[in-house]
# Entry
Amino acid sequence: GFMGGPVQRRLDLSKMTTNSQYDGMGLGENFPSPQYTYFDASVGMSFNTQLNENVDNNMFAGVAYHHFTNPKNSFYRNSNIELDPKWVTSMGVKFSVTPSSYITLQGDYSRQGKFNEVVAGALYGLKLNEEVDNPLYTIHGGAFLRLNDAFIPVIKLDYRPFSVALSYDVNISKLRTSSYGRGGFELSVSYVGFSNRKNSTLNSI
# Structure
């Protein structure tokens, strides 16, 4: 797969407060412009396989390379400040618990410059209608852990061909004293479709 497009970053200077303002010296920052735009792109690939005759038993592995355009990343227009490329590897396995439920285990490892991150967790999926081989609704619940940073409870609903997930980051790092454990909500919406070619192969849209 490939993903790319323009990215815009912007500061609302009217909502900034700096030390120099208390001394009557104005904002104290000299931005050429409070916004800038750059083009960014990513590329990746994955391998998926069914483990046996049960469609709920499968595994997947993938790798992605982000920011390979090395975009400039500075409100001061400093050409030496670039967004480092990021490698992300993912692995997971899904296995059946009952004919109408399954568990998905997944882990991600990412590295950008000298920084790295590990996220791992599990989701329990329950099919909500009687057609277990091709359910219209599936609800998932579970949690992930971002190592040394956050605990992330997740709830997800699959309603073919859409998928909607809601998660919340609970801060567990050393910053929790200041953040009071608060993180942020994240909402994701996905659409998955297939086109059936004459050779009977399925291609994801």
In short: Helices lie at 19-22, 176-179. Residues 73 and 82 are 5 Å apart (CA to CA).
